[in-house]
Task: structure prediction
Amino acid sequence: MIFMKSGKDYALITGASLGIGRAIARELSERNFNTLLVALDTPELKQLEIEIRETYRTKTDSFGIDLTDKNSAQQIYDWCKNNAYNVSILINNAGFGEGGYFEDISLEKYCKMIDLNNKSYVSIIHKFLPDMKRLKESHIMNTSSMEATLPLPYKAVYTGTKNFIYAYSLALNEEVRQFGVKVSILCPGSVLTNKDGLERLKSQGRKAKLLLYMPDEVARIAVKNMLKGMLIINPGIMNWWITKIAKFIPTRIKMRILEKIFKVYK
Result:
């Protein structure tokens, strides 16, 4: 089915100010979708709003908020309702991770990671889903990771949050597809989004570069396949093969291999 847009329909993107979220906002604007940009209230968020309005001539607006705040989902929903923004595409992309020995990272940071990577996704979908079910067709895309099915030592909580998104999205899709709501799971591998990512890339050497994608590449693949209604979107043929092959390796052996590969995070 071809996804039809109206002048009142919007795509809402969380984590829109940087990295994959920023690239997805641009890709949707290039395809003539109106966009709602949600992220922390930073200069980058406002700059993107101005860029989209001037470059693509589509409707856009931004809302600066900390998605780990308890009432953030309600505030975003109220903002959309008060401005008559009809959300037909919902892209949950905000998130962060950190690597190292489990006990070396503070519990406060882990809780914030879970709040952003998981609770914000569930909360926002819970607010918008009843309205989306009343549309003829709508899309939800949740950003997980290739690591969702590859639990990584030294990134235990982060990969746990990505596994939650993966499993939650698979189950939710079965509940809502009868109503014309299509859920997609974006599972990118290594994506160069910031200086920290560049440092991690250097530490892992040449092998990591083989799996590296840029945000614009991921965004093109993600949006194209989301609009087709693809359930699992795994950018890159190498990443796809790794996840498939990993399923046939005994768990104990696979975890030993992953520990050796990712011990750089120690």
The mean pLDDT is 89. The chain has ten helices and seven strands. Residues 9-265 form a domain with the Rossmann fold fold (CATH 3.40.50.720).
